[in-house]
């Protein structure tokens, strides 16, 4: 586990280094609104996330022999989309959160209007970045744009947020709805990150189907683990108030299934993710370790 | 002028017909949040806009011999981006508008959270649609994705909105800032619509440079005409409160340059747009008429 943690930290650093050099902001007039917009985007983009989605893309790419040079710009686009979703999700009209990763949320620093715009800009720019990645075929770049749009759009992540918003304060929903929520809100983008890594490395159809099963399993596991963590973690571990989901009467796996059943479902999902990658033998060890890690992480 | 109006109405109807068949929403559970999200997106997408950007793309495409089949899906993506920007622009944290085109704004009907999500979903889906247009080369589709992202993103439309937000209530700004605002907030997307029509039809570099000059000129003209209209139009003509920009101390060409100078600048811009298309003779008549129309329209 310590060895995996070292790997995750090193990959996250690699990604951050690339992001800093890749992602430049206008600096000529630090007082101007275009610069403030860029600063607001950077504030959230560099707020020290775990970089789980980039690491998944990088690890999946490596499994199929792809290079970091190819996957890093794709990982940046994915993290931009993830970051925008956090900014908008924290807004007063959505989850109304004051802290994220131990820092004040974007709208607390830059105001609500600028936070909406920073999210919009990250979302919009991400597709331009993706369409311009050097070294990938035109076909692959278009497939990535389509895949990212589907995973993040009106039937994917945004639909998940709509479900979340709709059922806020209601605990009388079915587990079908709960899993639909998780699959869309968190699972779709995690699955896409894994798939994108494979696509960049030229994985074939069968490989991609396996990656999809892996991604869907850990995507759901990730959200359930998040719900368990929100209930059982401490404020220091979480970087936000513990039990905040319960206080807001949010629909979570813990509120619906209880802690025990949530944990056993988590185990089942992790096993599924590990088994589907067995055909790749030792080469899949990293992705399998990550699946296990997702279920037991502390933050 | 009446003949042009008939043309604009007919083109707008053509676009709307295509949009309705192209743009399908999940209907199986009208009470579910994913369906409400789709309804909220449709509410604004079908709220009866002038469809100026689609018509510009269609007319520019026709000038270079392109077909409607090719340009209509591209026009849909452009209108989706335009629609998202209106939904977010109307939010309480932004312009805080209650009416748009004579109808309650999206957040007044669906609530603020759902309106934010509807905008996000339209924005995200637009790029997926664009990447999947049949009949266009992969190279053209990628160029369109990059161009749309640039026109709409952190250096284009969103930057324009950041400038707008930043200077709200301040009338002590230079005309450089005002024109930078207009060029980004309105001009960039209008210019892209014109360029996209040309790209779809296979216009060459010199053609695209002319279209760009045309688009930039009418883009700025459009916004100045809008400012003039906001000051001089009636509530019925506008579909919103007249003088609402002035009441909010918004930075507009009228507040900065006065009515007379705004009008003469408008004329200058329209002339520039008309002249740059003269090499195409009569074939450019429609685009030239539209340039004139933009300056004198009543809504």
Order of helices and strands of chain A: HHHHEEHHHHHHHHHH
Task: Report strand % of chain A.
Answer: under 5%
Please state the oligomeric state of the protein chains shown: homodimer
Q: Class of chain A, according to the CATH hierarchy?
A: Mainly Alpha
Tell me about the largest β-sheet of chain A: 2 strands, antiparallel
Task: Give me the CATH fold name of chain A.
Answer: Farnesyl Diphosphate Synthase
- How many distinct domains of chain A? 1
Summing up helix and strand content along with how strands pair, one would put the structural category of chain A as mainly alpha
Just name the CATH architecture of chain A: Orthogonal Bundle
The average pLDDT of chain A is 92
Shape of chain A: globular
Instruction: Look at the structure and name the CATH superfamily of chain A.
Output: Farnesyl Diphosphate Synthase
How far apart lie the N and C ends of chain A? 15 Å
The number of distinct helices of chain A, counting runs of at least 4 residues, comes to 14
- The share of residues in helices of chain A is over 70%
Task: Determine Rg of chain A (CA atoms, Å).
Answer: 19 Å
Largest interface chains and counts: A-B, 54 and 54 residues
């Amino acid at each position: 586990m310590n060895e995996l943690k070292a790997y995750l930290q090193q990959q996250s650093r690699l990604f951050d280094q690339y992001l800093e050099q890749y992602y430049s902001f206008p600096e000529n007039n630090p007082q101007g609104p275009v610069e403030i917009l860029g600063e607001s985007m950077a504030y959230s983009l560099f707020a020290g996330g775990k970089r789980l989605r980039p690491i998944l893309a990088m690890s999946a790419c490596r499994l199929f022999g792809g290079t970091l040079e190819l996957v890093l710009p794709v990982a940046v686009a994915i993290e931009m989309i993830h970051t925008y979703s956090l900014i908008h999700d924290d807004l007063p009209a959505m989850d109304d959160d004051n802290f994220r990763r131990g820092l004040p949320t974007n709208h607390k620093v830059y105001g609500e209007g600028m936070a909406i715009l920073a999210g919009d800009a990250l979302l919009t720019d991400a597709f331009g970045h993706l369409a311009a990645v050097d070294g990938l075929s035109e076909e692959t770049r278009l497939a990535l744009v389509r895949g990212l749009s589907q995973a993040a759009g009106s039937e994917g992540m945004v639909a998940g947020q709509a479900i979340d918003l709709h059922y806020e304060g209601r605990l009388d929903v079915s587990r079908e709805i709960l899993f639909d929520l998780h699959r869309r809100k968190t699972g779709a983008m995690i699955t896409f990150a894994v798939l994108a890594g494979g696509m960049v490395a030229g994985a074939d159809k069968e490989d991609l189907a396996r990656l999809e099963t892996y991604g869907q399993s850990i995507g759901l596991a990730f959200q359930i683990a998040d719900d368990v963590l929100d209930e059982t973690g401490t404020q220091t571990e979480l970087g936000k108030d513990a039990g905040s989901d319960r206080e807001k009467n949010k629909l979570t796996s813990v509120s619906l299934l209880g802690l025990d059943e949530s944990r056993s479902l988590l185990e089942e999902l992790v096993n599924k993710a590990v088994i589907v990658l067995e055909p790749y033998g030792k080469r899949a060890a990293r992705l399998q370790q990550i699946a296990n890690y997702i279920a037991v992480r502390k933050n």
